[in-house]
Hints:
Helix content is about 40%, strand content about 15%. It has eight helices and eight strands; from the N terminus they run βαβαβαβαβαβαβαβα. The protein has an eight-stranded mixed sheet with strand order 3-2-1-4-5-6-7-8, sandwiched between helices.
Amino acid sequence: MASVVLPDIDLTGRVVIMTGADRGLGRAMSLALADQGARITVASPDAAGLAAVAQEIEQIAGKGHALAVPTDITDLKACEHCLNRTLDAFGDLHVLVNNARRLHRGPDLPADGNNLAFWESDPEIYRQTVLVNIAGTFNMAHAVAPYFIRKGYGKIVNLTTSVHNFFRERQSPYGVTKAAIDASTYIWAQDIKAKGVTVNCLLPGGSCDSDPNRPPRPGRTLLPVDVMNPVLVWLCSERSDGQTSGRYNGSLWNPALDPDAAAAGCREAPSIRGAGE
Length: 277
């Protein structure tokens, strides 16, 4: 069972869609939200993985707290279906967490990961990564935004990466797509700020131990898989209402502080200004 990361924050009644929820960071964040009382739609193309996570959520929070919706985020209709299933099951939606992404490693990728010079990258892998990471994130946001606008309230959280991945060698296409997610976050936040909807991005602040395909490297220290849980719980709560266009680094969370102060300490400068610093 997950442990409550912020006992002062109660997410009872909150409804969250978590993409890429069948494993790794998505699973860890889903369990943390469940432990705070949230109801969660877990989405990914992996139906078996989703069913397992949904069962874990209900073991933590009780029956009726999880909905598994197999979803291909590259298909806009599938994203709209995910929203509709959520509304049918839970009657509301408060937060979309865009966690799903095409990873560096895994099936159909080089054994050491897709960290290649751009001219060595497989163009099909590049295309798939852009389609999932950029277009898929857009599709989910595009599907839920009209609902949020109608109700005058909602939160979108986009998963990004450390700024150095935007400009160091061998980070194409992954770093390219995550830079696009940062830009999308800032643009969408301005587009929708008058509608009662916030858009922020969240990152671990380093490599996590959630990737089963990561080759071992002596001396490398990885962040825990739950490193973003406290910031995400805060972002999903009413305490973050009105906070938008932020870039929150989970590794900077200070548990000794009040959650609002700890969250403020996690907020980095926008990457589009900080990348060259």
